[in-house]
Amino acid sequence: MSDSSTIIAIVSLAALVFSLYGGASSVAAITSFVRTISANPQVTELFRFIFLGTIVEAGRQVGETMLKFGSSLFVVKAEFGTHDFAYDWVLNYLEHHRVWNESRSFKVVARNAASRPNSSTSASLGSTDGHPDAIYEPAPLTASFFRWRGYWISVNKSVAGYAHYDTGEEIGGTLSISIWSRKRQILDEFVRAARQFYIDSKVLPRRVEREEPSGALLTAVFPQGDLAHDWMLAYLRSANALGGTMDFTISTKQSDLGWGNGPKDTVRYMPAHDTKQRFLFENPRTGRSTWLQVVATPGQRNWNSHTESGGSIAIILHSSDKAVLADLIETAHQKYLQNGVSTVTVHLTDNRGEWAKTITKSRRALSTLILPTDIKETIVADARQFLESENWYNQAGIPYRRGYLLYGEPGTGKSTTIHVLAGELGLEIYFISLASPGIDDYSLGKLISDTPSRCILLIEDIDCAFPLRDEEDEDEELILDIDGQLIARNSTPPRSAVTLSGLLNVLDSVSSEEGRLTFATTNHVENLDPALIRAGRMDVKLEYKLADAVQVEQVFKRFYPPADEFMVENHNAKDKDVQSTSRGNLVHPVYTPAEVDAYAAQFAQAVPTGTYSIAHIQGYLLTKKGDPAGAMGGIHQWLKSHEEEKREIAELRQKRRAEKALRLRLARERADAAAVKQHIANSDVVEETTDLIDLF
Ligand SMILES: Nc1ncnc2c1ncn2[C@@H]1O[C@H](COP(=O)(O)OP(=O)(O)OP(=O)(O)O)[C@@H](O)[C@H]1O
């Protein structure tokens, strides 16, 4: 059928339909109209063009379908969603291969390159000018081709859902790759290579939310107040966990634990609350690395005890292997034991009887504590075992608490022992002096209930509270009026407002059954009430004596540790005055360990055993810093002058005591005389005498 006859047929058909509704006259009009336009060659041409177009389009669609079918046999395709780790592997790998290098279409962002997880295509415009870098990213919808191991691969990055405001990381969107090969395993190889490259290059992974369900992640929460929380904190500090964060809280408070800095720094950097730190956990057992994400949630601050509770550290492990989590906890524990706790925190009270101040002291090594035999190891083991035996105490129905009484001469190491122990066990010290103003039965109870469960409660000089009433204190001063009447007693040490029953109540209270170690120290154990020191309240009693020869020798050696390498190298010079070196600000001659040992032995022989405290000896040695020969040479003179000093003090004391006794006697005599006078004045005898006198 010719084109024109087709048109005539179509139009006639339309005319027929129209005639059914429009009538015969209309049909005739339309038929004549169709005839007229079909005679027009331009109209005929137009209809021919439409017809041909329809055929071409149908052919194209058939061809495309066949091409798709054909290419599925020769091309392997894969799609990666931005919300998955596989996306990060592939994107990182593609960027490394500079796939977008030849591109003409970019998205440019201004950002600090260090904060970008995937920024290898960044074009640095200079980061030293105080402005962020420009980072070139492939524009979405740009297809790129590159060759990989002999295969052509095309890459297409679809429009991202949106970019995270803080990090610039894209959320939503996809990345599709097509590998021009019939072999499926090329895709496997490509993904494996991208994954391995990602692991090796250790790029910062993107952040993930804790709530995000993912079979690729493990989440563990460490609640504040639990020991494992402290282990993790110690690990985060040592691993410089702030490496991946841009959000900090800065503190100059010594009590705040910085995560990325040593304890000696004056300014501490801490992660801003609720931000996510990412860093690599190097597993010492397997030698492999796993990315961690850390979220620290602060707890509620108790302004009385200056403690925090209810917070947590959440760890998201970029691994689904639970053994990695176990390894992480073990590593953190080891780190905590090695050097995690480098300071000891001590809480002090104010004069209103409240926890007011916190100070930190450097941790003291166990080796610096000099006690006879193995007392220190025993006490550390005892406390450690107690802390690990909560279940046992609960099962046995025994209150979970332990009391230690350290008694003996001043300066023999009682306080030092507690300091060392706190460092060893990673516990904080809550220090109460019963003689402090503001401490009475009520405030004592409140203070103790405000302490956390795992801590050391230190009650120093506990005897201040309970001097025996029937024994007169030798330093007591009686204040009498002019008539010898007793006005007041003035005595040292000061009396405490705490009563014995108040203290016993506090020690026995339910709140003190939560794994707390109570330490009491005294120089006068004989003054303590037996009820206070009975087992159950004071379970371990340790006597501290004045130094014996072994201890004296050890203190000496501690003062003059072995020479460092520099000193040893120079030791062979003949003239000791010439080969001096400096330790701190002191310039002193150099001595070998053997020489120091010999001086130490002589020194220990010279000091009479059981006569001086370590604090005393330390005081003398401090005047001979870096000079063991001088220390040895001067000891006899020091002992002599010390003995003289002691004798003088004893004589003075004796004199004062005699004077006091005399004053007391005179005062009593005066008081007796005054009493006699008064009695006479009031008595009938006097009245009668007076009457008699009056009579005369
Ligand atoms: N056994 C010891 N080992 C190491 N150092 C000690 C020892 N005894 C005392 N010292 C040193 O002496 C100083 C005082 O010690 P410490 O305060 O522990 O004595 P103390 O027995 O508690 O005295 P006090 O009864 O007067 O409170 C500290 O600086 C400490 O370094």
**Overall mean confidence score, pLDDT:** 76
Helix/strand structural class: alpha+beta
Sum up the overall morphology in one term: elongated
**What is the name of the CATH topology of the largest domain?**
Rossmann fold
CATH class of the largest domain: Alpha Beta
- The helix content, as a percent range, equals 40-55%
Low-confidence stretches: 115-126, 469-493, 564-588, 692-696
The small-molecule ligands in this entry are:
adenosine-5'-triphosphate
Number of strands: 27
Task: State the separation between the terminal residues, measured CA to CA.
Answer: 182 Å
The CATH level-2 architecture of the largest domain is identified as 3-Layer(aba) Sandwich
* Number of distinct helices: 19
Number of domains: 4
Radius of gyration: 45 Å
Strand order of the largest sheet: 18-17-20-21-24-19-25
Give the biggest beta sheet: 7 strands, mixed
Coiled coil: 635-669
Subcellular location: Mitochondrion inner membrane
Domain BCS1 N-terminal: 50-239
GO molecular function: ATP binding; ATP hydrolysis activity
Can you describe this structure?
There is one protein chain. The chain has 696 residues and is α+β, with helices and mostly antiparallel strands. The protein has 4 domains: 3-70, no CATH class; 75-201, no CATH class; 218-340, no CATH class; 348-544, P-loop containing nucleotide triphosphate hydrolases (Rossmann fold). The chain has 19 helices and 27 strands. The strands form 9 sheets. Strands 18-17-20-21-24-19-25 form a 7-stranded mixed beta sheet, sandwiched between helices. The N and C termini lie far apart (182 Å).
